[in-house]
Structure formats: C-alpha cells, structure tokens
Amino acid sequence: MDAAAGNAASSSVDLAAAAPQVLVVRGRKHKERGNSLVEVIISMGLLFTILTGFSAAYFKSNDVMKVSVNETVADQAAAAYIEKARAAQWSTVGTDTENTAQLPDPTLVVKGGSLPALSTVTIRGLTITLKTSIGWTKAPIKGATYGSKTLYIDASWQERAGVPGSIRTVRQETTLTPGVDQAVPSGIRGGS
Fold this sequence. Notes:
45% of the residues lie in helices and 21% in strands.
C-alpha cells in the first residue's frame, strides 16, 4: 500500500507543480498578444514593400515582352513582303511609285514596278506599315554579268495608340537577282 500511496502522492505533487506553470504561460500569452499585433503590422508592411517591387518588375517585363512580340510580328510581315518580291517576275520588281527616302546615297532607284511603295498589313491585331524602296546595286554579285536589285523594307508600328513617341521601326533588306528561268531586261547590265 505504501507504494500505491507513494505513487498517488507523487502524481498529486506533479499536478500541483504543473498548475502554476500553466497559469504563468497563460499570463505570458495574454501579454504577448499586443506584441504579435505589432509584429503582424510590421510583417504586412514588409510584405507590401516586397510585393510592390515584384509587381513593378512584372509590369516592366510584360511591356518588354509585348515590344519583343510586336517586333517579331513586324519582322515576319517584312519577310513575307520579301518573299512576295522574290516570287514576282524579276523584270517587274520595283515599286509602283518612286520612293528614294530609304535608299543609300549612290543607289539608283528602280522606276516602275509591281510592288507598292507603301502598304499596311494587320497581323494578330497589330497594324504594320511597310515602306518599300528598290534600288539598283552598282556591281554585279559574285561575277554575274547582270545587275541586281536591293530591296529595303521599313516595317513600322505603334506600341500605344495615340502616343506619337511609341512608333517603332525595324528594317530588312535583301538583294534580288534574276532567277535561272528569268531573262534580264535589255539595257540592264549585261541584258540583251
């Protein structure tokens, strides 16, 4: 019996010793509630500052991505125009109106032709203006006895509607020579 009484006595002592600690813990929790409110406010401020920085970076990268996509679309429009010029009969490759603004200085303009000097296309909702100039290349290319034509295309678009400073332009140029099955016009560098 003494062993059972000793166990009962030790367990009642343990409970009595634990009870004041619980009260102290409860009192400490009650006092820390004010501190945790301040900590929450400070952490919310830090979180707001960090999120503001991330959102600014997100919107900037979104603008850069939009410009990059639009530039790619404009490049594709210019490349499609170049393919149209390559598919045309070489002797008719020229612009419908004389456009010398884009030609380098010693280049002579090709007068008359089947390609428009100014056109617009809309791709994926982006309106692109294509300004085209075609000039004679002075020297034959790679030992050929005929001349060649150089095609200059400026593809322009507006990033933000109504904002004049948001107009961007990409330029492509290529050299066109007569195909194997195409005759060189008479009087044109080696043509008969």
